[in-house]
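Long-time lurker. I teach an intro course on protein structure, and each term I like to show students one example going from raw sequence to a predicted 3D structure in token notation. This year I'd like something fresh instead of my usual example. Would anyone be willing to generate the tokens for the chain below so I can use it in lecture? Attribution to the forum is fine with me.
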Amino acid sequence: MNTHDIEQLNEELSLQNGDGYLRFKIGEGDIPVVEIHNQHGSALISLQGAHLLSWIPNGQDDVIWLSKDAKFAAGKSVRGGIPICWPWFGAHASNENFPAHGFARTVNWQVLTTETLEDGRTRINFTTQPQADNQQMWPADTSVQYQLTIGKKLEMELITHNNGTQPITIGQALHTYFKVGDVSKVLLHGLDDTNYLDKLDDFKQKYQRGPVTIEEEVDRIYLDTVRECLISDKTLNRNIIIDKCGSHSTVVWNPWQATAEKMGDLGKNGYKKMLCVESCNAADDVVTIEAGKAHHLWVQYEVQAIQK
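-- Reply from a regular --
Happy to contribute to a lecture. Here you go:
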């Protein structure tokens, strides 16, 4: 995308409302981004992957973690932010040559609409289409949309439409990297008394007692999870509240030191400053969408100060 394309996007879709704005520009790696600022906070979203890179409610530190060593390049996933895993989660069920977590996070998305809501929040709608290098992977007769609403809360809705005559099955996740002060001191509530699959122990099913704590590498799929989750972070003096609909599985991931060092793009001690809590349709929670129907994965984040 060149300067002329950015100018055209701004002409057609930019917003200006007092001190608030939505505008397009070229970001790192020459990848276009959209900047949003309103009375409630700010956000930065890459058009590659419709990948949210930052969300800062007024008076808060960034809620979203982005690696200091994140690499920005066409067709490559970015370490941090909120990647969209779609139309499958993890490895593809039948073709090991297909990319892990699908292709949505590395393709270009188009902006359909932008608007300022009555309460000052900003809403932006994205979609993406089959492209030459992913047509074989694209679910037949399917379209996908992604709606982000930026305000004091962050709302995300990933909508998959089955436009065909046969059912389709998808997996998906909003693979959120949350910024934390010290992951070893964080408590994750809302998954207690829940079974999970331990991906680091050959997917053995285990049982969660009490809040989740991170003292080593963790990679788990929590099953049958619909309750609100809460990240209690006393280091940053805040709780992050995670609400969702259309998802019955939750992934919790932190690579810890040894794995992080092998990955090469988490930054020095980056693993200490992040925790992934992902609202998913994963494992047995894949979604079958009947002909003519749609599935909505809706997720909302809210930040509250911890009362001293």
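Some talking points for your students: The first strand starts at residue 15 and ends at 17. The chain has a mean pLDDT of 96.
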